[in-house]
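User: Here's a protein and a ligand (zinc ion). What would the complex look like?
Assistant: Let me lay out the input and then the predicted complex.
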Amino acid sequence: MYILGIESSCDDTSAAVIEENVILSNVIAGQKVHAEYGGVVPELASRAHQQNIIPVVDTALKRAGIGKEQLAAIAFTNGPGLLGSLLVGNSFAKSMAFALGIPLVQVNHLQAHVLAHFLDKPGEEKPKPQFPFLCLTVSGGHTLLLKVNDYFDMERLGGTIDDAAGEAFDKAAKILGLPYPGGPVIDKYAKEGDPDRFQFSIAHLPGLDYSFSGLKTSFLYFVRDNLKENPNFIEENIHDLAASMQKAIVKSLTDKVKKAFKECDCKDLVLAGGVSANSGLRTAMTDLARRYHRNIFLPPLDLTTDNAAMVAVCGYFKYQKGEFVGYDVAPYSS
Ligand code: KG4
Ligand code: ZN
């Protein structure tokens, strides 16, 4: 059974074909247009999706080696995300499902990040997390601690009250004059830096909530004050600045996971979302899991950031339950 997944919630246009939970193709067209603005410009994102969607879907079908008439259903991200971007995937999926006379499945983008762990690549059958598991979903728009009881039964244990972890990376990069998206660039510089060189204080909220806006501000003021003394401060210290900021973000994330272990009796710790590509976070969470005798599940790097295979696998699980939507379904931004 083949399912086509479509993802267009932010700045990646992606289409994937899966056969049950096995990825046959996963095509992602990124949008370079945002790099010079230091963040995603919604209007430009919608236009780029509109241009990319047909070639991306076409390529996904070709790479999978199937014809569109072989598809059993179409799954698309219906939210949360940028409304204009979501509308492109939503309208395209509806039109194509209507033309082919096949069911339409709506997918929540955050659930898709989590369920990416249930995908396999051809010839591989990797171990899957066991319900209930603890999942830290960290992306450019979200930071959530979830107790995942079943495929579509996810309890929110905590989350950010302001910026997402990915935003903290992106904003730190912008302050350092680095391009968007900043996370991968900070990660790269951090590898050659001293994480203990500078101290940035992290918020200590009660419970399992996060806050990253204070950290971002203290980073901004610190860099700005030092630039007054030394105009070359950034160039001379970029590796240590990246490593120290990354350490602060990672510490904030791990502290709450440690706390969540006490509240949630889950054997498995799962990371999801774009920030789960971060090498510092992967190492810190692996160490933490080992110390607390939990199994760790890290997504393969190509499935951390936005992609349509994760949308398709959600579609596959919903297809099995017969959870389809009509052509009147509207996208939602939050
Ligand atoms: O999940 P995603 O592709 O999109 C959203 O749903 O938001 O996540 C994108 C975010 C961006 O903030 C990006 O900077 C961050 O993930 N990111 C990283 C890394 N790779 C991507 N952050 C830190 N380290 C990385 N290696
Ligand atoms: Zn995402």
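Summary: Residues 109, 113, 139, 273-274, 306 surround zinc ion (ligand 2) (CB under 6 Å).
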